[in-house]
């Protein structure tokens, strides 16, 4: 027999032995694993009642998405309106500058057929007029274009007295500090 032929036969035998050892190790591992995890878990009692009524979601779940644009060119105007509307629970999805800064009067545009949302925004900003301008390409229910006539200190429609505002958001930690740096109780 030639040396080449002996190497081929020896290689085949070694491969067969290797596969047999590998199979034995896998079978042994499966048997040990089955023995280790043989215990059944304790039963868990599941209690569920399908006859309960599903509660109605609170009104705050139906959020009004608002876009606030500065059309007056007054620095920080859109940010102040954004903060005011967010404190009232509106979902201000964007704020920034309008296409021009020559807007003398504030415009509140209803972008969907839901006029009530636009009226709620107008009331909070101290205005009573809205315009219907449906636009399904916007991710907002209401667009506010702030003009020079909007005053952040203007009370909301129907408010008894003007709200005291220091220009800070309700959640701003600076509201807890006096100008001297003394901490006060939460307002």
Question: Could you walk me through the main structural features you see in this protein, from its secondary elements to its overall organization?
Answer:
- The chain is α/β, with parallel strands linked by helices and 187 residues long.
- A 5-stranded mixed beta sheet has the order 2-1-5-3-4, with helices on one face.
- It has helices at residues 3-36, 77-87, 115-125, and strands spanning 65-70, 91-97, 107-110, 131-132, 142-146.
- Helices cover 30% and strands 13% of the residues.
- Mean pLDDT is 75; it is low at 54-61 and 158-165.
CATH class of the domain at 62-156 and 167-176: Alpha Beta
The biggest beta sheet reads:
5 strands, mixed
Strand order of the largest sheet: 2-1-5-3-4
Query: What's the rounded overall pLDDT mean?
Result: 75
Span from first to last CA? Answer: 101 Å
Q: Remind me, CATH topology of the domain at 62-156 and 167-176?
A: Alpha-Beta Plaits
Percentage beta strand:
5-15%
CATH architecture descriptor text of the domain at 62-156 and 167-176? 2-Layer Sandwich
Classify the secondary structure makeup into a structural class: alpha/beta
Helix and strand succession? HEHEEHEE
- State the share of residues found in helices, binned by percent: 25-40%
Radius of gyration: 35 Å
Q: Helix count?
A: 3
